[in-house]
Amino acid sequence: MAVFGYYTWYLREPLRDYGTVVGLIACTTTAKGLRVTCRLDRRKYTLGRKITPEQMASVNLQPDQFHGEWNYVIRPTKDKL
Q1: CB-CB neighbours of 72 under 10 Å
Q2: CB-based contact 50:64 (threshold 8 Å)
Q3: pLDDT value at residue 12
Q4: 49: Cα within 13 Å, side-chain hemisphere
Q5: What are phi and psi of 20, to 5 degrees?
Q6: Residue ranges of E strands in the chain
Q7: Is the distance from CB of 4 to CB of 11 less than 8 angstroms?
C-alpha cells in the first residue's frame, strides 16, 4: 500500500486539500527510523511533454527486488558524475 493509502485508511476519509496532504506527509515517521519531509511545489509544469525511448533508456533506474516496477532508485548517470 502506498503512503497515501495508509493516510486515507487511517483517517477513513479522502485527502481533500494540499494543506492536509503536506501536513500529514511532513510528520511521517516509522518505527525503523524513516522520516519524511515535504513541501508544496506550486510551480506550473508543461503538460503532455513526451520523451523519446532513447531518453528513457538513459535514465539509470535500479529496480528493487520487491515489486521493482513500483520500487526503484534513480541513480546519476556516469556521464554526469
Answers
A1: 13
A2: no
A3: 61
A4: 7
A5: -65, -45
A6: 60-63, 72-75
A7: no
- What gap in Å lies between CA 7 and CA 14, rounded to an integer? 9
d(CA 29, CA 33): 6
Determine the Cα–Cα distance for residues 60 and 5; give it in Å rounded to an integer. 28
pLDDT bucket at 7, cuts 50 / 70 / 90: low
Cell readout for 25 is 506527509
Q: Which of 72, 54, 76 is nearest to 64 (CA)?
A: 72
- pLDDT band per the 50, 70, 90 thresholds, residue 47: very high
Whether 32 has a pLDDT exceeding 50, the answer reads yes
Q: Which run of H or of E encompasses 41? A: none
